[in-house]
Amino acid sequence: MQKQNETPASTEISFLNCIDLSNPDTQQSVSLLKQACLDCGFFYVTNHGISQEFMEEVFSQSRKFFELPLSEKMKVLRNEKHRGYTPVLDELLDPDNQIHGDYKEGYYVGVEVPEDDPEAHKPFYGPNVWPEDGILPGWRQTMEKFHQQALGVARAVARIIALALDLEADFFDEPEMLGHPIAVMRLLHYAGQISDPSKGLYGAGAHSDYGLITLLATDDVYGLQICKDKDAQPQVWEFVAPLKGAFIVNLGDMLERWSNCIFKSTLHRVLGNGQERYSIAYFVEPSHECLVECLPTCKSEKKPPKFPPIKCGTYLSQRYKDTHANLNVYNKHQS
Q1: Which residue among 23, 236, 255, 306 has its CA within the 20 to 30 Å range from the CA of 126?
Q2: Is the pLDDT assigned to residue 99 strictly greater than 60?
């Protein structure tokens, strides 16, 4: 297996811009965000309106789920709509450099769409999968509340991104965009393995996210690393410091397509250091029918569009299929 050329694991820490959503000076926020998007595609968001007390409750409830016996967690195994539990090694993000899948387990929660709704047949839409209330009382209510509040944060960030791309502030608020989004929350647990890139062992392999933006809430354990220049040889990796009460936000591949590569999605990975680590990723994408094509402010005669238009639902379905284990693996294991 060909290992990627990179510098030895270091303790370098990347210093990221911080966007304060309560700042009345919108232009300052736009300037800071634009600088971050041009530099590394990662930044912090603070004063986002979700209380620290509630964030701690969400993490506490997440921990309670992952502490359940594996047999109990497998009762809510991920389905074909990407809802429910993903076991350790289920996801393989960097097949060129990983000898196994990611040493993490997760739990997907999406937009709740009743089974009898006409929209429920679409990928990533449909009813969520929930642990029984008798096992984890109030768990569903906590996660649904967080999902709803995080979407409000994502919409606020998207308005600043729109201004940074010289669009109207409400560009991403349209119904076909974040009016009816594909918003997927994923609880994550890294059990404490020690990663070793030289042996192809990672908490999460190097990847860029698929969608528009991702909000990441973390505990205080280091692990997330970014590579600001994915084409550099050797690659240089820097840790992103956890910041209490903040979301770490990164741009996805879809926004890179939309912006004609003016804003870049950034390679990132997770290295385990022997400590347990919990995080919550919130992936924000537009609706299924949204046509992702080069923005009018990002193209010119000298800079024509680099990507053909593509529907969001089509694009996401393929990306998830490429990185997740076939569910038949679990059916054989359980039979």
Answers
A1: 255
A2: yes
3-state secondary structure 247-296: EEEEECHHHHHHCCCCCCCCEEEECCECCCEEEEEEEEECCCCCEECCCH
- φ and ψ of 160, to 5 deg: -70, -40
CA proximity to 37, closest of 129, 196, 166, 155: 166
DSSP state of 304: -
Q: Return the bridge partners of 250, or none.
A: 42, 214
The helices-and-strands tally (H runs, E runs) of the chain is 7, 15
Give the pLDDT confidence of 9-55 residue by residue, as tens digits: 456 888 899 999 999 999 999 999 999 999 889 999 999 999 999 99
Q: How far is CA 123 from CA 13, 18, 67, 131, in A?
A: 38, 34, 29, 22
Q: Is 252 exposed, middle or buried (0-12, 13-18, 19+ CB in 10 A)?
A: buried
CA atoms in the 13 A half-sphere facing the CB of 262: 20
* pTM score, whole prediction: 0.91
What CA–CA distances, in Å, run from 11 to 7, 61, 222, 270? 11, 31, 10, 13
- Whole-angstrom Cα distance, residue 87 to residue 281? 16
Q: What is the pLDDT of residue 98?
A: 87
Gyration radius of the chain's alpha carbons: 19
H or E segment to which residue 39 belongs: helix 26-39
CB atoms within 10 A of CB 110: 22
Given a cut of 60, whether residue 330 has pLDDT beyond it is no
Tell whether the model's pLDDT for residue 79 goes beyond 70: yes
Return all residues near 232 (Cβ < 8 A) that are at least 6 apart. none
Of 307, 284, 286, 287, nearest to 295 by C-alpha is 307
**How many angstroms separate the CA atoms of 86 and 107, rounded?**
6
